[in-house]
UniProtKB/TrEMBL annotation:
Domain ABC transporter: 6-234
Alphabetical list of CDD domains matching this protein: ABC_NikE_OppD_transporters
Biological process (GO), any one: transmembrane transport
Name by which UniProt lists this protein: ABC transporter domain-containing protein
Tagged with keyword Transferase: no
Keyword Nucleotide-binding: yes
Lineage: unclassified sequences, metagenomes, ecological metagenomes
SMART domains attached to this UniProt entry: AAA
Keyword entries, A-Z: ATP-binding, Nucleotide-binding, Transport
The organism of origin for this protein: marine sediment metagenome
Pfam family, one: ABC_tran
Gene3D superfamilies: P-loop containing nucleotide triphosphate hydrolases (3.40.50.300)
Amino acid sequence: MMDTVLTIDRLKKHFVTRQGTVKAVDGISFSIEESEVFGLVGESGSGKSTVAYTVVGMYRPTEGKIIYRGKNIGQESRKRPKELRKDIQIVFQDPGTSLNPRRTIRQILELPLKVHSFSKDDKKPLERVEELLEMVQLPPSYMYKYPTMIGGGERQMVGIARALATDPSFVILDEPTSALDVSVQAKIIDMLIQFQKKFKLAYLFITHDLSLMRNVASRIAIMYLGKICEIALAS
């Protein structure tokens, strides 16, 4: 029997506006097993990204529990133990806005290593950066470039490398290809699946594309207006 990595229990995230309360996430529950690709599918505005940002700690839940490997982690990311923050990573939808344009690729990839005092196989930060670039099929010379100097697909590869820098076991993929040209979408998806299998990662894969999830995920949850309508096997 597989271990449960993440349990979402009656999670709510509401936002108070001048027009009233927006129930972005309204009492959803699901779980993700070790090394599972779990698809969360819904149209724009259904609350999918709010789920991602709440799980990763960017938002604090209004109600409900986020249980990660047996621990309730429903507080903001900065209040979570460093080891926990290292183990849960996210790939954002738009690499153009998620990468700091004032930092080189090397600086972007070294930052999580420094924040988490992370070293793999006693590698120095520069060696780890070179390894990460090789993993996402970018040449070493890219470490001296700025995000604005490379294409959207390459920026997303950097975003993926950054998410994998600290050797996490759980990664949230928030529409990782929707902002990219069709020509590079398949390459990014193939790369993500290869990493999932190689490193035995658990994914929360968020998308509006149900047909994609049928080919990628083991289970799929359908989200609409802040609620989960159905959870079923992808097959």
